[in-house]
Amino acid sequence: MADALPVTFIAGKTGPWQIERITTVSGAGLLAAERLLVHEGADYTAPTVSPTEATSSPDWVLRGAVSNQRYTTAAELTRLNAQSPALGRPDATVASLIPITKSNEWWELAQDERRAIFEETSHHIRRSMDYLPAVARRLHHCRDLGGPFDFLTWFEFAPINAAAFDDLLAELRGTTEWTFVEREVEVRVTRGPR
Amino acid sequence: MADALPVTFIAGKTGPWQIERITTVSGAGLLAAERLLVHEGADYTAPTVSPTEATSSPDWVLRGAVSNQRYTTAAELTRLNAQSPALGRPDATVASLIPITKSNEWWELAQDERRAIFEETSHHIRRSMDYLPAVARRLHHCRDLGGPFDFLTWFEFAPINAAAFDDLLAELRGTTEWTFVEREVEVRVTRGPR
To answer: What is the ipTM metric for this complex?
Structure first.
């Protein structure tokens, strides 16, 4: 990857993804909305709202950046790259946006302590790898951007793999790593014409 | 550290730090300016320039965030915390802002590969530790923010330690890690009344 890629998730009345449900897993939730738009690049600005065009205002906007790996080793990266599908597969008509905030306790840990919990204890990469290539994934970092979340993870898969994806989420939520998650919301969407 | 702390460095006509020199080490430099202001918190916005107040416009503005450690181990962090002085010591009247951009080749490396170059090969932490507590240091991350630099490092020291600080910079610039640095500027400032 070259420069960090800014990505903005805009929930409102427009966008190619229909929001099926927004589930609050822990902490504060997110407002209900109809559609989700994923904007790549730095130039997204929220529309100006006039009294007669109130519907053009998004319900919420979350920003992140596709950035460098923080925990993945070279050996893991080789295996991940070999098995990870691209976003935008025609049959991947279901997607999930999972914004997460971890606790101050997590962020105060040193790099080796976080890595040990992340993989050696909680097997975040190994567990996720079991769901490749069915589930495409892209991680967006936002802690340094000062927003309400630390990460926005975006997953895409075919409807037939939705149950398996739910199993992955349940597995991860049972790990030691997840004891440091203090806010988590799942936004489940399907691709469909407006 | 709790949430990432946004910090803005504003070069222009005002601020407690007088800019002594701006040295381009590699890549593109920065515009000359008289004074430097360090603003902590998210609410800095560049002043609106009117034709009669052109001097109020900053020469340049760089933003970063004090964020979590990316390479430091728990053992290293314990030693660093024990020896690292706070910013703002009365006798630390010299400071240096060093904005750096690393190459795509660096950012495409896996975490363990970057860590190995950073410390096991280049001894970034060990070398820096030799200059504690003389040199106070704070690192600001900005790669995910989309600005022109990846890091802004701020150092503060007494005038008597300026030569030692220059030795540290020369040492670091000779390491393997620095072969991945494609842009580096040093802004040397002294604290003085305006």
So the answer is: 0.89
